[in-house]
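User: Okay, second chain of the day. Same drill as before: sequence in, structure tokens out.
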Amino acid sequence: MDNNALADLINRHTGSTLQSISPLSGGCVGDVMRANLDDGRQLVIKQSDTNDGSLAIEADMLRYFKAHSPITCPEVVYADGGILVMTYITNDNRMSRSVQLDLAEQLAAQHQVTSDRFGLDFDTVIGGLPQPNTPETNWITFFAEHRLRHMAHHAFHEGKIPKSMVVRIDRLIDGLERYLPTNSAASLLHGDLWGGNILCQSGRLAGLIDPAIYYGDREIELAFGTLFGDLTPEFFGRYNEILPVSPGFFEERRNLYNLYPLLVHVRLFGGHYVSSVDHILAQFGQ
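Assistant: Same drill. Structure tokens below.
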């Protein structure tokens, strides 16, 4: 969409005039820009040339997250298959101890939003990749089939991992009951909790962006937050006061759960993420 068409779309849906557009970093789905309006408001605009529906799914995720999570997220202004317009969350990108404590409290509150089934009533995306959310009553079944096996087999068919690694992952899946709890609660998850999606402002959590939502065991969210070191000991200290984390998480289950985001990164970026998957499989005897 050219700038004139974009300005017209924004005017129709906000009643304001587009003043300027500048690029923003990030975005696996398409180009990301920030728009300044004449009334002082700012918007984020994502555009995709593929028109594969990912942006419409992202809009649905944001609407669901806004309606069910206590954590702030962007508000959808307009969306279709090729463009997503949403509100901009002011942030200073200064992660601090107080932000970690605030995030712990708000994420613990979100994790107390639960469902009677794992998954969701619609499929979502993570990093632009399809993420199936077929509802299940058993967490191990959901994690095995709709997270690990789904992502691993797609990675193999795309030539990102060898057949031998898929066999190792399948063997691990067959023995998941040895490592994972059978009484997990289905908590509302952001689904893509890493530093780039955590916005902070003046020592507080400003909001979360780019969700990949579903209902799952909250430990998979906590694990993802440690993959790149984004959740600190201060976070876990406060979170554990509200919702205690069971023994064995840091020693074992964290790495097991991080196989999923690592396989996502294998499909998106390849490279050393394959060796990270290999290392975790070896840790679990595969």
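The domain at 97-283 is CATH 3.90.1200.10 (Aminoglycoside 3'-phosphotransferase; Chain: A, domain 2).

User: Thanks, on to the next one.
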